[in-house]
Design goal:
The structure holds two protein chains of two kinds. Chain A is mainly beta. Chain A contains no helices and ten strands. Chain A is globular, with a radius of gyration of 13 Å. Chain B is mainly beta. The relative contact order of chain B is 0.35. Classes of the chains: A mainly beta, B mainly beta.
Chain lengths: 114, 107
Amino acid sequence: GAGVSQSPSNKVTEKGKDVELRCDPISGHTALYWYRQSLGQGLEFLIYFQGNSAPDKSGLPSDRFSAERTGGSVSTLTIQRTQQEDSAVYLCASSSPTGFDGYTFGSGTRLTVV
Amino acid sequence: AQRVTQPEKLLSVFKGAPVELKCNYSYSGSPELFWYVQYSRQRLQLLLRHISRESIKGFTADLNKGETSFHLKKPFAQEEDSAMYYCALTGDDKIIFGKGTRLHILP
């Protein structure tokens, strides 16, 4: 597609449930990032995929968070046993290998844990 | 419609010259505005936000509600300022990023 697509756009879940967030990057973009932004805060880096290299998971806040990228394209961020502090907007962004043209961001998934 | 506009895709400035990266926004409520920066081979990071009214690495940005602008300024450019800069807005529902401006500092 023409842009980075994220689904769902909004998700309300009960505390303790698992959720999956999907990101479909721009075709040909080998780099993919997940960020989140909590109310009033800046972006928090979560995880970074680049081609076939091992992902940089240094930003994942706990072992309840995991992410996969299948076939170098679509990525899924999974949050297990959700907690209220997981409520945030989760953003995906992709870029070309050089990153010279910068990021293209998806519109985000707003997750609300009740 | 909610929108963040960065009109310049590329801005080249000589070292020591003043820098101004333009950002205009469209939002019906009271937004929070941010500038993010990505240096070469590094991940995106927050540079500053308007509610902090701070100066980071010599950069400042003032929110002008009358002009709906949040331009990023620095009086004297340094070579290490070369990077990609994103203006962003957060409102009630979502985060909106501009398309970014690549700042190239010429020696």
